[in-house]
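Structure (tokenized):
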């Protein structure tokens, strides 16, 4: 604050604090998502009906864990063991490690753009509406099918224990979870927390009680005959569906409180915990069950518990499976329903699907639509479901890693994730190659089904989305490579609105000044007198002054003491003879302005002009500027800004104390 104190020294008198009203900043960018000015009222209504931020870090952890701990551990191990043998736990470990590596990209994108739709939203904003439509449809199908499988498992358990008809039970369970999610995301999340904690305790007891009875001989030979190192990647790809829960979290990121912290902590913790849990459980199962009994079993954990603990162990693990199916179904409907919501918001599906319930703040139509599809999907074949869902999830990981690369290389100023993928760009590139390899190793049956879904998405885009001309990060990247501006600042403004909501930035008087401030970009090097002539010629009319008079004011003030306060920043300021008048002007000099002494390349110039009765605004404006220019990234960000809008965003989104 040294800069502020050195400047306020020139003014004497009491500083009156003023109460500044503010409005929702997001309403200022209504044209960004819709691309049609005639729909201003509709978009403003949509933003007012935004989703409630009610999910904590624990909720994020439980939604992700509840989505992952399900059929992937209670059903798939027997099928995977049949394909590869005792090395099945290693396949799960590889899948978990790769899911963690791929999830880093999802976390970066989620913290930069916490919006409903998750990977769809990120891919659409980076690669364009067509790629986004395909991604959204693929992810919606994958999560819906995964949820349908969990509900099928739930119905089977109910049928075995209570004799209830499988189809009827599946439909009733779907309707129940649809109702839970309509009531509200927080209610669904609380339900999820209780279920996940119970599930973790049961699996923990299973591991603790069974580890001492593991037979090492059950791990020999380590691979089945005919399988080996290469086959393990095919199996790892097949069981990748077990780690699809992270996509579910990204799709509800708009409803997460403090997303900068809660999303990375919740997601990373969940995948590490679940991967360790999977590996330990599978070591116990393989070590207890004979190979002949484990191979192809659809109830491997229950079989192992029955052999070791008897009937009570069987019933306990069956209860755990029931909890797993419940948590997956609940989290699945919660997450899958956000994809139609996001597609509808972007005019790629009918508007009806983006309607939000006024009381519960939940997308009621989208939830019901997803529930209807899940009911229809309950009859799908298990193995097809697993392969299709795993392939789609792997494709989503490929696209999200590509999205990170494109967004980083496009150098969009307002792309500001709070978590960044380490070892960039090598890790994202490696992830893309490994995920593609895993898809190929699984075979082309699931790819064929995925291509069918892609074809449906293309038809949907042709019917609904062709009119959408939204700008993407890819346009910024092409413009950067060709040195031509292809963007219209639409994406930058949209990201600006997202950052304001993410960080809880409240518009104050300084923001209003910046938004209204004329911006001048100076292309050539200048002396300070040339700068003042330029300012006077272009800005005197804004103050209802003659250019000569404004030049004199600026020159007189500069003669008293230099207004250059650092090698980068100067704040010329003048007092005008009138009442209730205060203006801010922003100038960027690309080649620098020579203020004399050591300040010969000043590139950020803030001109303040106000009447004497506005001294309090003058001093508060100086304080705001002082905080912004002292930030370690200010110089770099200011020099990279190419347009007037980007220069304003440097100030509007900068870190400073705000007047409330």
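Design, position by position:
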């Amino acid at each position: 604050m040294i800069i502020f104190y050195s400047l306020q020294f020139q003014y004497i008198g009491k500083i009156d604090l003023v109460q500044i009203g503010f409005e929702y900043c997001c309403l200022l960018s209504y044209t960004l998502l819709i691309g049609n000015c005639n729909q201003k009222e509709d978009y403003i209504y949509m933003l007012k009906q935004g989703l409630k931020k009610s999910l904590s870090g624990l909720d994020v952890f439980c939604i992700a864990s509840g989505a992952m701990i399900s059929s992937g551990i209670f059903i798939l191990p027997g099928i995977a063991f049949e394909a590869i043998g005792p090395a099945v736990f290693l396949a799960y470990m590889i899948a978990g490690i790769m899911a963690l590596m791929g999830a880093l990209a999802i976390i970066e994108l989620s913290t930069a753009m916490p919006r409903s739709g998750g990977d769809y939203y990120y891919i659409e904003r980076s690669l364009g509406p067509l790629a986004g439509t395909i991604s959204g449809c693929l992810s919606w199908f994958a999560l819906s099918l995964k949820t349908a499988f969990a509900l099928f498992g739930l119905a089977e358990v109910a049928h075995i224990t209570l004799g209830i008809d499988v189809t009827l039970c599946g439909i009733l369970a779907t309707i129940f979870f649809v109702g839970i999610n309509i009531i509200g995301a927080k209610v669904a999340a609380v339900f999820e927390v209780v279920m996940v904690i119970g599930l973790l305790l049961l699996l923990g007891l299973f591991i603790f009680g069974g580890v001492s009875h593991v037979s090492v001989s059950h791990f020999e030979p380590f691979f089945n005959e005919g399988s080996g190192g290469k086959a393990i990647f095919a199996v790892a790809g097949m069981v990748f569906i077990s780690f699809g829960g992270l996509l579910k979290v990204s799709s509800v990121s708009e409803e997460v409180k403090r997303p900068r912290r809660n999303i990375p902590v919740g997601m990373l913790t969940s995948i590490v915990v679940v991967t360790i849990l999977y590996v330990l459980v599978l070591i116990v199962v393989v070590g207890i069950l004979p190979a002949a009994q484990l191979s192809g079993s659809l109830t491997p954990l229950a079989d192992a518990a029955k052999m070791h603990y008897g009937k009570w162990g069987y019933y306990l693990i069956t209860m755990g499976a029931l909890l797993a199916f419940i948590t997956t179904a609940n989290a699945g409907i919660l997450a899958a329903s956000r994809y139609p919501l996001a597609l509808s918001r972007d005019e790629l599906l009918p508007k009806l699907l983006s309607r939000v319930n006024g009381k519960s703040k939940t997308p009621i139509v989208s939830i019901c639509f997803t529930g209807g599809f899940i009911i229809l999907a309950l009859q799908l074949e298990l193995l097809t479901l697993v392969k299709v869902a795993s392939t789609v999830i792997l494709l989503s990981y490929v696209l999200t890693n590509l999205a990170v690369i494109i967004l980083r290389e496009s150098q969009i100023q307002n792309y500001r994730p709070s978590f960044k993928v380490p070892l960039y760009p090598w890790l994202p590139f490696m992830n893309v190659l490994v995920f593609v390899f895993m898809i190929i190793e699984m075979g082309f049956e699931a790819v064929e089904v995925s291509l069918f879904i892609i074809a449906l998405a293309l038809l949907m885009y042709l019917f609904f989305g062709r009119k959408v001309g939204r700008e993407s990060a890819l346009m910024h990247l092409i413009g950067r490579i060709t040195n031509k501006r292809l963007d219209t600042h639409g994406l930058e403004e949209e990201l600006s609105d997202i950052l304001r909501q993410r960080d809880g930035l409240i518009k104050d008087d300084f923001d209003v000044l910046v938004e209204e401030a004329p911006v001048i970009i100076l292309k050539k090097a200048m002396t300070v007198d040339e700068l003042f002539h330029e300012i006077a010629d272009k800005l005197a009319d804004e103050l209802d002054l003659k250019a000569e008079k404004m030049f004199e004011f600026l020159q007189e003030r500069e003669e008293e003491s230099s207004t250059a306060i650092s090698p980068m920043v100067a704040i010329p300021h003048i007092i005008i003879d009138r009442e209730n008048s205060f203006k801010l002007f922003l100038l960027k000099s690309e080649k620098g302005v020579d203020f004399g002494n050591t300040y010969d390349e000043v590139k950020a110039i803030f001109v303040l002009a106000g009447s004497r009765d506005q001294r309090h605004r003058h001093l508060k404006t100086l304080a705001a500027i002082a905080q912004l220019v002292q930030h370690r990234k200010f110089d770099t960000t200011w020099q990279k800004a190419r347009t007037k809008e980007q220069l304003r965003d440097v100030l509007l989104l900068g870190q400073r104390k705000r007047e409330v």
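Reviewer-requested clarification: The beta strands are 519-522, 526-527, 569-570, 573-575, 582-594, 602-610. The longest strand covers residues 582-594.
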